[in-house]
Design brief:
Strand content: 5-15%
Structural class: mainly alpha
Distance between the termini: 36 Å
Shape: elongated
Number of helices: 7
C-alpha cells in the first residue's frame, strides 16, 4: 500500500482503538474475478475526518467470509465470523454460487459443501 494510505490506516487504528492490521488488502485479488452482483448498491459509506471508508454490506460479507472460510478451514476466524453473521440457507446458496465462480476446482467444491453443512 502507498505510504500515505499506511499512515492513514495507523491514524484510524489509533483514533478508533483498532488493531494496526485492521485494513486487510489481501482480498483485493477478488476484484479480478468480480464482486457479488449488486455489491455497489449494498456498500455502506463511513467518513472519518478526511478518510472515506466503503464497507461491504452484510450479504457481501457472507460471500467473502464463506469463500475465506472454505480456503482456511473450519477453525479459522472467517468461519467463526460467518457463523456470527447468521446467514440464511438462501444467502449461503448465493454465496456458494459466487465462491464457485472464483474457484471451480473439485477440492474447493468438496470443502465448500463441508463448510455449508457444518
Amino acid at each position: 500500500m502507498p505510504r500515505p494510505l499506511l499512515e492513514a490506516v495507523e491514524d484510524v487504528a489509533a483514533a478508533l482503538g483498532l488493531s494496526s492490521d485492521w485494513l486487510n488488502a489481501g482480498p483485493t485479488d477478488l476484484l479480478q474475478f468480480g464482486l457479488p452482483e449488486g455489491f455497489e448498491s449494498r456498500v455502506q459509506v463511513r467518513i472519518h475526518a478526511g478518510l472515506t471508508i466503503h464497507i461491504a454490506g452484510r450479504l457481501d460479507q457472507i460471500h467473502f467470509k464463506l469463500y475465506a472460510a472454505v480456503d482456511q478451514g473450519p477453525q479459522s476466524k472467517h468461519f467463526a465470523d460467518l457463523k456470527q453473521l447468521g446467514p440464511t440457507p438462501e444467502e449461503l446458496i448465493a454465496s456458494a454460487r459466487w465462491a464457485r465462480s472464483h474457484d471451480p476446482s473439485p477440492a474447493f467444491r468438496e470443502n465448500l459443501e463441508d463448510a455449508i453443512w457444518a
